Amino acid sequence: MTLPQSLISSMMPEELELIAMEQLIDIVPSFRADKIRLISGTFGPFRPPSKTKVPLWFAVNLKLKKKCRIVPPVWLSIEFLQERLSQETLSEEFTAFPFRFAEISKVLLDVASDDLHNPDRLRSLLKDLREARQAKSREGLRKLNHEMLEIPNLCSMELNEIRPFFARAMDVMIRLQSDALPEHLAKVIEDM
């Protein structure tokens, strides 16, 4: 969902990707090494063909140096995404995904598409999922009320997209509501 420049007060997608780079992911190293101590923790040992968990940024670095194969997460498979897409289109609720699935899948498709089964189909399914979820977000914002908004299972990127609009809309709704309230109650709400 693209917003006008005046409404952009959230993080950029690139910033969200940077945050997502701390997520742990499995790799199969093509080198041998003992445990490696980093600021974010100790990782390893690295013994092919055994899997080991490392932060995504480290996996990307190793992949670019051709020192590992990245093991895609379970949710980044055609079968899983097709199932979730059908759930997404049939249900009014958002289906559950890892909180940073959009950022992680973009990084993996950009850097390690050779480690993924049918990356073009994965891109297509992720795009369809994004469009279905955006349609639900727009519909949910149409039903906005001043008392409560509950949208479970939104992901990081989706929350980031609707945050500026939502914050402004709630502010306007509270102001409109306070104009209809007696003066002493409106003052209490303003002071909050």
From TrEMBL:
Broad class of where this protein is predominantly found: nucleus
Biological processes annotated in GO: chromosome segregation; DNA replication; double-strand break repair via break-induced replication
TM spans (from-to): none
Subcellular location: Nucleus
The organism's place on the tree of life at top rank: Eukaryota
Keywords, alphabetical: Chromosome partition, DNA replication, Nucleus
InterPro entries in UniProt: GINS_A, GINS_bundle-like_dom_sf, GINS_Psf2, PSF2_N
Transcription keyword on record: no
Annotated GO CC locations: GINS complex
UniProt domain DNA replication complex GINS protein PSF2 N-terminal: residue ranges: 13-71
Domain named GINS subunit: residues: 75-174
Complexes and interactors: Component of the GINS complex.
Family: Belongs to the GINS2/PSF2 family.
Protein's name in the database: DNA replication complex GINS protein PSF2
Organism: Clathrus columnatus
